[in-house]
Write a structure and sequence with these properties.
The chain is 56% helix and 16% strand. With 452 residues, it is α+β, with helices and mostly antiparallel strands. The protein folds into two domains: 2-54 and 313-450, no CATH class; 61-292, no CATH class. The strands form two sheets. It has a six-stranded mixed beta barrel. Strands 10-11 form a two-stranded antiparallel ribbon. Helix 11 packs across helix 13 and helix 11 (304-355) runs parallel beside helix 14. The protein is elongated and about 105 Å long. The protein starts with a helix and ends with a helix. The relative contact order is 0.17.
């Protein structure tokens, strides 16, 4: 142990003799480890983002709508129209959000079509009342401003968010309406933001807190509840559980509807002979059956749970492949960066052995063994690598923070990445420092003393 401490002290003293050369030598390791930390931070965040996107990609929404009646397709028992009902409540929305597993977001909804007026302009469009999670449900970004908050929903705030087309019609193309006033049913609303949604319906809408719209309409019930599943493959299960929950809350019936001809879900919109006063549809069902004949729609809806299962398996496989690709990419970048740093350390240690040949000869002449010389130069190489690695880790943290603030890219530096980088730095020092250290230990004392 004393020999190791002595070797470390001699190594630090030797490195301090040529500070500039030492710094330039460590530069390769600093850049290499810094690049590893930065890339791992970006990779971890990107992988989490990809995982969230893949798991929530596709048809992960479930729509609950007040009312239910059959206008066509009676022989297939498929609800093809919606009637007026006032039984869907905020308590129902809360019960759905709390009582069913696998739900990521839920939003109560109230809507109407009305004239939206700004100074000098008016636009007849749909006004959608929603909860604060509505924007997160659709992963919206905003060209201007923001969405309303839970506090603003709870306080019935007179605030609004505009779709792109609505903004252009009311204020002009490219204008910033944030902070300006619009009027809905002759009531003033302050514009909070403009959503970048590209949905053809949403770009022509105005979004306000659903509580505010309830107050404006003088109603206490809801028109819709929209639910986002954590995984798209759970949509059918969540829809079925919502149906059972609402039946129990509205009629006291806990039993499911009795399927016929292999049809399930809300194709039999009643339980115990009592028709449902709501309709539950998944986004997949809505998209796949749009414009189809009744019999074809029935077949698709009957097999939709199996389709969701297949989609979930495919998305899981996609996530696994994406994770493997990201890992291989990061490993390649790390290997190249650290290889460059290690070669730099080997080069400077070979130069150091050449410069200190007479010193090595003197040490050997006064009794130092080959192992002592080997240890001394190996400790020096590892010290050089570890100091550079430590600076590189700090450099990686700084770059990660800068990337997040300047480019607004998410980064996530983990403790495991720091420990791994530090361990790799030590391993690089040992690996690339061993050859120069062994070369120094193999020098014969007489030949080393003669060296000029």
């Amino acid at each position: 142990m004393d020999l190791l401490v002595t070797s470390l002290r001699i190594a630090l003293k030797a490195l301090g003799r040529n500070k500039l050369r030492t710094l330039l030598t460590m530069l390769g390791m600093i850049i290499g480890v810094g690049a590893v930390i930065t890339m791992v931070a970006l990779g971890n965040a990107a992988q989490r983002t990809v995982e969230q996107d893949v798991r929530s990609a596709g048809t992960n929404l479930v729509h609950v709508t007040a009312g239910n009646y059959t206008r066509g397709g009676e022989s297939m028992n498929i609800a093809s129209g919606l009637g007026a009902a006032t039984t869907l409540s905020s308590a129902d929305a809360d019960a759905i959000g709390r009582g069913i597993r696998g739900i990521k977001y839920s939003s109560a909804g109230v809507s109407l079509r009305a004239w939206t007026v700004s100074p000098g302009q008016r636009f007849y469009t749909k006004v959608q009342g929603a909860g604060a999670s509505f924007a997160r449900m659709y992963a919206w970004t905003f060209s201007r401003g923001r969405f309303f908050s839970d506090e603003e929903v709870a306080s019935h705030a007179r605030v609004a968010v505009l779709g792109l087309t609505t903004r252009d019609r009311l204020f002009g193309e490219g204008e910033n309406p944030v902070g300006r006033e619009i009027r809905i049913r002759d009531q003033p609303f302050t514009v909070l933001g403009v959503t970048n949604s590209s949905d053809q319906d949403q770009i022509e809408q105005v979004f306000v807190p659903y509580t505010t719209l309830q107050e404006l309409l003088g109603i206490g019930y809801l028109h819709t509840v929209t639910v986002a599943a954590e995984q798209a493959g759970d949509s059918s299960r969540i829809a079925q559980e919502i149906t059972l929950l609402l039946r129990q809350r509205h009629t006291g019936t806990s039993g499911a509807s009795r399927p016929q001809d292999g049809l399930t879900g809300n194709m039999m919109p009643q339980a115990g002979g009592v028709p449902d006063d709501f309709t539950v549809r998944t986004q997949a069902a809505q998209a796949l059956t749009k414009g189809l004949y009744t019999s074809v729609a029935a077949f698709i809806l009957a097999n939709l749970p199996k389709l969701d299962e297949v989609n979930l398996e495919e998305m899981t496989s996609t996530l696994h492949r994406a994770s493997q690709t990201m890992t291989a990419l990061l490993a390649g970048i790390a290997a190249i960066s650290l290889l460059v740093g290690g070669i730099g350390i080997m080069n400077i240690m070979l130069v150091s052995v050449t410069e200190r040949t007479r010193e090595i000869g003197i040490r050997r002449a006064v009794g130092a063994r080959k192992g002592d010389v080997l240890l001394q130069f190996l400790v020096e190489a590892v010290s050089l690598s570890l100091i550079g690695g430590g600076i590189g880790i700090a450099f990686g943290f700084v770059v990660s923070v800068a990337v997040t603030r300047v480019l607004e890219w998410p980064t996530q530096v983990s403790l495991n990445a720091v420990l791994l980088a530090f361990g790799i730095a030590a391993a690089v020092g040992v690996f690339f420092g061993f050859y120069p250290a062994r070369r120094a230990s193999q020098l014969e004392p007489i030949d080393a003393l003669r060296f000029e």
